[in-house]
Amino acid sequence: MRFDPNRLNALILVAVLLCLVLLFRLARLQLVQSDLYLRQSQTNRVRVIEKPPLRGLMLDRHGQLLVDNYPSYTLMGIPRVIRQNPDARDTLLAITGIDSVEFEKRLEKIPGNWYTPVRLLRDVPFEMMAAIEERRARIPGVHFRVEVKRAYPNPIASHTLGHIGELKIERREEFPNFQEGDIVGLAGLEQQWNTVLTGQRGYEYLEVDAKGRIIGPLPGMESQDPSPGSDLILTIDLELQQTAEQLLQGWAGSAVCIEPKTGEVLVLASVPDYPPETFAGTLSPAEWKALQDDPMKPLIHRAVQGSYPPGSTFKMAVLASGLESGTISTSWGVTCAGGYQLGRRFFRCWNHGGHGEVEHRLSIESSCDVFYYLLGRQMGIETYYEYMSRFPFGQKTGIDLPHENAGILPSQEYLDKRYGGGWTEGQLFNISIGQGDVLTTPLQCATFTAALANGGWWIEPHLVKHVKNGSTYQDPDLPLTRHETGFSDEVMKLVRDDMLAVTEGPRGTAHWLQDPRLQVAGKTGTSQNPHGEDHALFVAFAPFEDPEIAVAVVVEHGEHGSTAAAPIAYKLIRKYFGLDEETWQQYRWSVLRERANQARADSLAAAQPDSPETLE
Amino acid sequence: MNALIRQDEWYIPILTLILLAMGLTAVYSASMGTDSSLFTRQLIYVGVGIVLFAVAAFLPERLLFAFTFIIYGVVLLMLVVVLFIGTGPTGRWIGVGAFHIQPSELAKLGIIIAVANLLSDKRFDLSQWKYVILLAVVSGLPFVLILLEPDLGTSLVIPVIVGVMAYWAGLPLLVLVIVSSPLAVMLASTNPYTLTVIIGLLILFAYWSGIRISLAVVWGIIVGAAGSLAPVMLNKLQPYQRARLTAFLDPEADPLGAGYQLIQSKVAIGSGRFWGKGLLEGSQTQGGFLPEQHTDFIFSVIGEELGFVGAAIGVILFWVLIVRMLWLARRVESPFARLILVGVATMFAFQVLVNIGMVTGIMPVTGLPLPLFSYGGSSMMTSMIALGLATGLASRRRGHG
């Protein structure tokens, strides 16, 4: 190591030279070429116009259009330029008719950013556009942006489809690649599949003059075309969904249909709903409040967010768990005298007269509660939870929709926490008949039914069948996991046979709905709730051999599953298989006529030995 | 008696405070155009920086010397760790609680101290190859680790700092040229004409330095062959790796990103003219035309709003600071302190040159921050510790024999 003073002098010399290089460069930019740059900056001549890509469409499983696009024009304004021109501001207010307070609010949309264009008015009508264009020279700082709006040629499934809108700062975190003010999917499939539907933004570099008029493309900057988003081919069946929504009209409730073998969701209906275009335009705060405060709660997607006690539709799961765990054998039975006395409390069976001797067949066919009270007690909470949790209860099904409700399947920890260890067998009684703490979504009920139909497995229910990009069809990027319940074939078969008895057995709770053309296995449910009349439920799959459809219907305050929910499920099943209603009606009449004739014959036979006065 | 006289260094702290004030003004102005919370955070970074400056200034030289290789080891460890658990948009940060540290920034300090320690040893004779190689290994390890992050901009600072420190410590110019030739050739390799000219110059320089012409030609051919292979290897890289490299070598190839920023930056600075548009009046700055202006492009705020006067004062202040440190390097007696002063001065000179060169369009867009100006905690910490060390080492120039 030797320090040579000359070397240090050389370093200082180099440093001073480099300093001069920078100073010369600054002088060249700021003194020599400054006029050029000043002109460029004064006119803000570069404007980057985002070219929004065409958003992907949504079609039903047969290619029927559900969500379409049409262009709309949005008036954009640069806050600073507008503020500097009070005349222009007044002209704008006169033409558009925007309230001046509201106008100021829109200008303030992005605080502190004075040059970023903000939306002044969406959906500008053509005449207004022409009026503004005519006076363009006197209104600097405004321009129009083409934006895509959604149209709904077949107004169905509004909750499932969701809607698009401006990304607000509060939800910025949910959309990592988007900025405040971008148009994104804010709910439903629009939100879940936002990235796929959106496509790639394009950019156009334009040269504009001091009044904001476009001169032309900026030299030297290639504009980039947007690439359109992909279309979604949904698993939804338009006609079946329409039928479901019509059938539920006037009630509050939900209907779900699933293809058991594929997990494809054919129907995901929630009523009451709202027209799908409600959120497509501008919604006034009053309209929004009215929707939110509506006691019928039309904004809730009942099929995936509603939570209902499953009631008796839960019994198949409890029965299967009892058999699979070895708690009971197939010959196990109880005597139902209309209820069961537990300590000081009497737990009723819905059939106050009692079912008499009940084994598993009758417990499902005629839905005996006492059978399940005692079965639940015999299993205990640990076995109960161990086996029940193999079904899609108390967990999200994984459907491709945001904000799915997981429901509740009580476990020991849950009950300990909820009741502080002070829970009794009463709670166990209740959760064994699908009441008490048990909560499910209609989608969970349908998925559970699909698992029974399949004989012990289910595929995660999903709503997108294909992603279509141009003319190529791709499989959606979904984890279509096959869930195995691990229940044995014998147990599953026994439960299915019991379900068939519900519709075909002599004491079946849905016996009256029997259709000679199709074997349907089902289960009625009536779930008590503290807020009024009971909810009616019905789950079913058909055809009995080799099922193609699994259905769950919930009708809020529909009182009894067999009267309110089951007919809707049957109509959906008939519609799916193309069986007309008329034939069933005629069959039903003939059964009733036959029964009347039989009754007359019986009473005649009974009256025969007696004197004729009984005929009076 | 001299040993008791303590002469304090005032130039560095005063220049630092003036530059910090200018930097804060620029960040304040830039943050008005985008996100006003940036300024508050930068204010905290400056506060922490001033504390670190003071701590570094009062750190005894002996202690720094003794802890050299612990510091170096910690730096290496952090560079390895960030490769695996790096966070942030580019994966270059390590999260420590609510704070994020960018190890590549702190690494520069570690290397300056480590190299100064080595070179200050009397036995470390740079005319012997084994010492040159040892030096190359010590500085090469962190260099490669930073390159792997990948952070090409920061990694390039290291060979420059080490090269200048070694030059001051007596490294033969020929060795410096030979060692740096592969890098020069690689960077020039995309253009065959530049490559040929550079190889020619290398051969000539080697011959002029007294090497046999045959040896010089062989060296030129080896380096040339390696250089011409670089484009072939480039094609073997992953697409994103290639994109990063080509964006560095040719930023105009990416007009949407770097090219757009460059145009807007030049418009901002050029339109500032002699006196500038006035604070908070810059239409480019306030209009948010420059994405991420508060970090790498911060100097364009000065250029637009304070004009040529402000920008020139900024540049001159930086160079007074740099030349002052070089000048102090002559006056202090401890070789260790001399080398650290030269290292810190080089670090500042290189970063200021590359950054201001970048925003004015004469240097490629590399993403090097402007010391004391650019928004960011790690850069602020590194700069302030470096200047604190320089102040401390210079102040004790008569107190330490």
List the helices and strands and how they pair.
The complex is a heterodimer of chains A (616) and B (401).
Chain A: H1 5-32, H2 34-42, E1 46-51, E2 58-59, E3 65-77, H3 79-83, H4 86-96, H5 100-107, E4 118-121, H6 126-134, E5 142-151, H7 158-161, E6 164-166, E7 183-185, H8 188-192, H9 194-198, E8 202-208, E9 214-217, E10 231-234, H10 238-248, E11 253-258, E12 265-271, H11 285-293, H12 302-305, H13 315-324, E13 334-336, E14 339-342, E15 345-348, E16 356-358, H14 360-365, H15 369-388, H16 412-419, H17 425-432, H18 442-454, E17 457-459, E18 464-469, E19 472-474, E20 482-484, H19 489-504, E21 521-527, E22 535-542, E23 549-555, H20 561-576, H21 581-607
Parallel strand pairs in A: 2-10
Antiparallel strand pairs in A: 1-8, 2-3, 3-4, 3-5, 6-7, 8-9, 10-18, 11-12, 11-23, 13-16, 14-15, 17-20, 18-19, 21-22, 22-23
Chain B: H1 11-33, H2 37-57, H3 61-66, H4 68-85, E1 94-96, E2 99-101, H5 103-119, H6 129-148, H7 152-168, H8 173-188, H9 192-208, H10 213-236, H11 239-249, H12 255-271, H13 283-286, H14 299-331, H15 335-359, H16 377-395
Antiparallel strand pairs in B: 1-2
